[in-house]
């Protein structure tokens, strides 16, 4: 099996700088690449976009920035549904949209994941082409990867065995809901999207006033079994960031250095105890 291009996105490293978005626009706005992609207009089309996902609430919020683009799926629904002949998949795994056929009205609807988008200025449909024109000219990576300052985006040309090894080694996953399409864009640290964040602040009375309780042991229990534990920081804060979505009967068990204890039951639908008073 020949090697195919694969992109990995590390959600722990994306900082929402939008360099990938801007570099891709810089490459494609006003530039025709015959056989690869039509020139995009200044009105623009985001072939790469950054979605935002929030966990937590109150004073403890975690934002995750999620780059989204065409995943160049190996079993692409768009290719199966295409009757225009505009879409094709190359031997190296890259899916391209023929710029000569990009005005077909049905193209946007062919991708169930919303990754084929129409340029408001030209009316042409576009997808993220992996900058195939640059790779064919000898570049080692597309502009988006080159422009990423944190290495959140990385690419490689891998055969199936090498890809399977990397997926297992790095815990890579396709975007949720895309598994059947066999995407070639993989995400690392997907727990930031799929798992719950349980966080809060512990307070205790000091001279008749509530004060931040540092050094309190907080243990998270699921179905009576301890799954994780931590100690509150100087602000009395604690957080558990990897709670499986199917977790049931969650409770927090707090203990102070002098032996006092408190148990707080939680519902994952409302997982954030804004404050716990000892």
Describe the model.
The chain is an alpha+beta fold. The protein folds into two domains: 4-192, Alpha-Beta Plaits, CATH 3.30.70.20; 195-277, Immunoglobulin-like. The chain contains seven helices and 17 strands. It has helices at residues 19-28, 77-81, 107-110, 132-136, 143-147, 160-170, 191-194, and strands at 4-10, 48-57, 60-69, 87-89, 95-97, 117-118, 125-126, 153-158, 185-188, 196-206, 209-212, 217-222, 225-231, 237-243, 250-255, 261-266, 276-277. Strands 10, 11, 14 and 17 form a four-stranded mixed sheet that branches. It has a four-stranded antiparallel sheet with strand order 13-12-15-16, with no helix packed on it. The chain has a three-stranded mixed sheet with strand order 8-1-9. The radius of gyration is 24 Å and the shape is elongated. The mean pLDDT is 92.
CATH architecture of the largest domain, by name, is: 2-Layer Sandwich
Strand content: 25-35%
Label the overall shape: elongated
Spatial extent as radius of gyration: 24 Å
Largest sheet: 4 strands, mixed
Please write the CATH class name of the largest domain.
Alpha Beta
Q: What's the helical proportion of residues?
A: 10-25%
What structural category characterises the helix and strand content? alpha+beta
CATH fold-level name of the largest domain: Alpha-Beta Plaits
Average pLDDT for all residues: 92
| Amino-to-carboxy terminus distance | 61 Å
By DSSP, the count of extended strands is: 17
Pfam families: Fer4_11 (PF13247)
InterPro entries: 4Fe4S_Fe-S-bd (IPR017896), ET_IronSulfur_Cluster-Binding (IPR050954), Ig-like_fold (IPR013783)
Domain 4Fe-4S ferredoxin-type: 62-155
Protein name: Fe-S-cluster-containing hydrogenase subunit
């Amino acid at each position: 099996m020949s090697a195919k291009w694969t992109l990995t996105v590390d959600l722990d490293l994306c900082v929402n700088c939008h360099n990938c978005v801007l570099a891709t626009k810089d490459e494609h706005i006003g530039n025709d690449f015959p056989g690869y992609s039509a020139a995009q207009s200044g009105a623009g089309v985001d072939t790469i976009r950054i979605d935002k996902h929030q966990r937590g609430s109150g004073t403890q919020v975690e934002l995750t920035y999620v780059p989204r683009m065409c995943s160049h799926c190996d079993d692409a629904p768009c290719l199966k549904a295409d009757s225009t002949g505009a879409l094709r998949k190359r031997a190296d795994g890259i899916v391209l949209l023929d710029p000569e056929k990009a005005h077909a009205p049905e193209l946007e609807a062919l991708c169930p994941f919303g990754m084929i988008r129409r340029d408001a200025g030209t009316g042409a449909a576009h997808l993220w082409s992996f900058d195939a024109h640059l790779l064919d000219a000898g570049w080692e990576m597309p502009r988006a990867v080159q422009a990423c300052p944190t290495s959140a985006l990385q690419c490689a040309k891998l055969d199936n065995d090498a890809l399977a090894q990397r997926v297992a080694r790095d815990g890579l996953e396709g975007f949720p809901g895309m598994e059947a399409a066999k995407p070639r864009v993989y995400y690392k640290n997907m727990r930031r999207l799929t798992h719950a964040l349980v966080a809060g602040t512990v307070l205790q009375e000091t001279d008749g006033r509530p004060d931040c309780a540092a050094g309190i042991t907080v243990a998270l229990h699921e179905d009576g079994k301890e799954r994780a534990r931590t100690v509150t920081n100087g602000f009395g804060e604690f957080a558990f960031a990897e709670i499986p979505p199917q977790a049931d009967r969650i409770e927090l068990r707090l203990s102070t250095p002098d032996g006092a204890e408190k148990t707080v039951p939680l519902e994952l639908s409302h997982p954030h105890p804004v404050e716990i008073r000892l």
